[in-house]
User: What shape does this take?
Amino acid sequence: MTVAPALAAPIRLRAGPLAVAAGALAAAMALGVMLGPASLPAGGVFLEIVDRLPLLSVDSGLSDREAAIVWELRVPRVVLGALVGAMLAMAGGAYQGVFRNPLADPYLLGVAAGAGLGATLAIAAGAGGSGIPTAGAAFAGAVAAVVLTYALARTGSTGSTANLILAGVAVAAFFTAAQTFVQQRASDTIREVFSWILGRLATVGWAEVRLLAPFVVVSAAVLFASRRLLDVLAVGEEEAGTLGVRTDRLRLAVVAAATLGSAVAVAVSGLIGFVGIVVPHTVRLLTGHSYRVILPLAFVGGAAFLVAADLLARLVISPGELPIGVVTAFIGAPFFAVVLRTARRAA
Amino acid sequence: MAGLTCTAIEAGYDGRTVLRGVDLAAAPGEWVAVIGPNGAGKSTLLRVMAGLVPASGEVRIGGRPAGSMTRRELARSVAVVPQHATIPPGMAVLDYVLLGRTPYLPFWAGESAADVARVHAVLARLEIGDLAGRRLERLSGGELQRAVLARALVQDAAVLLLDEPTTALDIGHQQQVLELVDELRREHDLAVVSAIHDLTLAAQYADRLVLLHDGSVVAAGTPEEVLTSKELTLRYGASVTILRDDAGGLVVAPRRQTATSKAEPTR
Assistant: This one.
């Protein structure tokens, strides 16, 4: 008796990899809340968080000061790290799909340079290196840069993606030059500007989380909904058109969502590099080409990666802190090299 | 008329006119081959039919003006096998062919089990069912062309456009692909329009030929009517002998040009 061979199944997000990524995120967040310059009992930290949940009330045994460290410093910082990492990684993956360019990252269209100029102007005007006014100025700068990139690309002969990337390069160069000029003129704030640019997740509390969360939700929802059409786009814009996809609309929706989300992430955390490249590519190398898999896993994996990187940034030279951008590149580059080698050997 | 009709098509790029008043019709079950020298406008004409190039004049699909159809509606009516299909690295044959179901999928949902079953059936019909799980870059040229054809077929469109479907294939695989297209158009009553360089293949497989020259239709009709050595010398600057095979099909055979027979194509 012969048995018919099992038919191949289409690529889908499977529970296994998602569980691994979610487990890594849970572990990183737990460690991020437990560990810090002030040593607190793990059980007390756990109970303190349980106490804050709706409808639950337990006595954590922590003092008021310890409870404030947990709830006003560590938890918002970990949550902010997760939101920023998730947003940057998912936006990077989406950019790589819509531009069909493996080097595309969330900063492609001038977000970083625009945010840098906005933040530098705010800091030079006395707004300080962190806080909502500086974040607002960074966001405004990022959006202005991307709008300018789009306007510039439209003046070209076609509205092609190559035009958009080139316009992004030009706008980024211009904004970076302006930022350097402002920084030079206001040299007394140069340290604050420098530390903003390197990125940090130090918060003033929950304000940044409340600012970022709605943008992440909306942006991630749009990108998540576009994941199947990004797979269609892999055959190129013209062929995707013959398959019924309005590629112009898809590109606009994806670019707008990814850019807006990354602009707010950058505004509250500075320029954290490498997450938007290394996380989606790691997912791609481990699970395959499909954006139905890459985008959700990059979202969860990016959150885990940045929370873990922030943990290292806080602990390595404790009680001092490393800039988180240094940690993401320092850990991310060798990790990525290992994944690249392994994936090539497996292929 | 059902099938596809083009009336007075004018199109161009960057101010240069490529098509000048082209008329063409393909009925259900009919195969029309568009022939002509390089740069005559064959690919552009196919791209106009697929709605990829803006043009004046009118394209009707199944009696409806293509201009009044949405991208999705058009993709359900016209399937395209491009000359150089983009092959996404790492994608499996099954996932690639499933892309052909895109015009039927709601925005929020993925493919249903019925879509997947349909793809498996078409892959089996094209005799590449056992390759469903294989990556595209590991297919041979002939297998790859079948995968691209399968993607077009699962669009369930009444019109099938083929842009030079045999360019990269050897003579055996050329015949296999064209025989397959021929069987499928009979099975599904497809209106087939193909741009094709090889005049013998065009004559053997198509019901009617449309000869384009410099953006205009200069001859149209059965292979016997269009493929005359006089016309081919005039339009291609080629020296050819038209032969008949045992089955009565035309064969266009090139031959050496003698000093007296050398001809320049007209512009």
Notes: Chain B touches chain A through 40 residues (CB under 8 Å).
